[in-house]
Amino acid sequence: MDSPAYNLRSRPSKMAPPSPSPAQANGSAQQQPRSLPPKNRNSPYLPTPTELLLLAAYPALLLFGAAFSAISPQTRAAPFFPGTHAHSQEPGQAPSYFARKDNLLNTLFVKRGWAWFTLAFAFWVGTHPALAAPRARVRAAARWGVVTVFWVLTTQWCFGPPLIDRGFRWSGGRCEVVEERVDEGQGDAGDVFTAAACKATGGRWLGGTDISGHVFMLVLGSAFLMQEVGWVVLRRRGRRELEERSVVMGDGAVKGAGVEADVDGARVGNVVDALGLGGRVVIGVVVLSLWMVLMTAIYFHTWFEKVSSVYSPLLSRILGGSMLTVL
């Protein structure tokens, strides 16, 4: 005869499994998004595949613009002046309205470009519900500050002349008329160190590689806006499981950006609702930027200057992105 202990061990249990707690039931019914596992996580110091795809739009515009310029009869027939980095500005000789420096978009948008980027970003941060928390807005302002520093040092001031003007001088450029006056003892040597000062004194900025400060600004600013808006839209649409930006936490740990974001907000089903009004304003500014980058690729600067103008802000964006991962 089997012992009672043996019967208890061998007999299958007929007890019902424990019922899930209310919290577990709710959790299974409404799954919360989680960060990607570490093995699938992107490096916090490099662009993600989606960011690389977006950044590739700028070289694509450059190549398309160069090809269009080479095959367009109007562009090929119009005289090009290396000293001004442009075709003839006469209305009857310019190959296109956008080949003229006084076109409306260049005057009102490009020449005030960083102000437009700043206003669009401020409107986005101030109106989108995903950035309603004070901490999120402070961090967004810090990221804008990092990108602005790159723009200032490259195009405005870098403990003297900006990096673009320093590169022009290092590549053999000079302010032609002013340097002749200096040699004759009639000018100030300080006038020849920046493009703005050279043009203000009637000189010509000639001889070197003149990277377009406007293109640098358009590429850097629009890439920054696309990155800022894009990740928020992905989270709002519940698509963060496809790809996620990584960030460096205060303790040095690398985690998905979702741990720092408001992932419990309402999900929306289409891109327009996810963008909100602020996002649509940002998209408008980005589209204008891309259009003007294309116009520059077709009508302005030499080939090497165009390549430098596009790739230098992309490099700055990648380097700045490694800094933004901690902000």
UniProtKB/TrEMBL annotation:
It is found in: Endoplasmic reticulum membrane. One of its GO terms (biological process) is lipid droplet organization. Coiled coil: none annotated. Pfam families: FIT. Keywords: Endoplasmic reticulum, Hydrolase, Lipid metabolism, Membrane, Transmembrane, Transmembrane helix. It comes from Coniochaeta ligniaria NRRL 30616. It comes from the Eukaryota. GO terms for molecular function: coenzyme A diphosphatase activity. One of its GO terms (cellular component) is endoplasmic reticulum membrane. Residues 22-33 have a biased composition (Low complexity). InterPro entries: FIT (IPR019388). This is Uncharacterized protein. Residues 1-43 are annotated as: Disordered. It is a multi-pass membrane protein. The chain crosses the membrane at residues 52-71, 113-132, 144-164, 215-234, 281-304. The keyword Lipid metabolism applies.
